[in-house]
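Hi, here's the filled form for the chain we discussed.

Project: internal
Contact: R.S.
Residues: 334
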Amino acid sequence: IALKQWFGETTDAPTKESLALRIEQEAQRIVEDMQRAIQGAGPEQAAILRLAEGTAVLALADIAAARGQFDQAVDSLEDFEVRFADNDELVGEALANRLMYLARSGDFEAVRTGAGDLMERHPQRAAGVINVLLRDLAEEIERLNAIRDNLLEAQQVRDEAEQQARDIAETILELAERLLEWAELQNLPEVQLIPYRLIRARALVLVDRAAVAVPIIEPIHQAYPNDPVILTDMAEAYMQRALQARPVDLDALKTQAAPLFSRLISGLQSQRQPDGSLPDLYWNAWLKYFMILDAVGENTADIPKRVAVLRARHPDLGGERYRVRMEALERKYR
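And the returned structure, exactly as it came back:
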């Protein structure tokens, strides 16, 4: 686990490959050792040994995926839910990872099939797994959109990135729609349908249909006005609806989206994680607030000042996902 964390934080290519080899060797050794040890183990010890083995198998798949070997990553998780059926957490992670590897490989038909199988075979796990998948795919869309918007890239590369982002977004929406349909068939109380409605709304925002998402989120936000996740969903939907309007609705950015991101910043600045860091929602709120200032062209001189203050307190600025874009806006208005 420590090696995997180190691997994720390392950017130097030779160091990263060296770490990948170490993780691969250690994980393979753990798998082999646990398979031997489990032969004569009692039930309690066997469960511990299977946990160690399953964690190592997930690590091997992660390393293959990090190298771009997505088919190998998928194959390494074959029958995982059967081999480790006694550990729901491991199985849920494996199912989500498998779908993510398929998506990264561009096999969206397999993603749709796999998600459908998941909803049929493990319906109680489906919401959590697909929600994680949607989050990861949303990050992939952001990465592809950055390539699309990079004028230094070749036009063919930019066009391919745009098409892949569109394909991912459509897959996300299809998964979210199917998940909500399944949930509604279970005759769940309305309060239990809220997570499924929010998943669909997030998917709609990603496929440039924020105007449809807003009326889905608004009544949920009114019922739970202080929930930071729902508050973020509401702010994101207002922001994207304004940006997707033609012309861009600058007034809505200032009066609807920006105040909600400001509330999130104020409310989350004291919410430390167990490791002392601030939650992703806090950094997302700052980034989106800066993006709104940039879009409306007001108070942009404040961006470099605020980024500098944030960096003095938190040098990583919430991690690469937020730091890179904050620093780009900082340079723009320095």
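Let me know if anything looks off before we file it.
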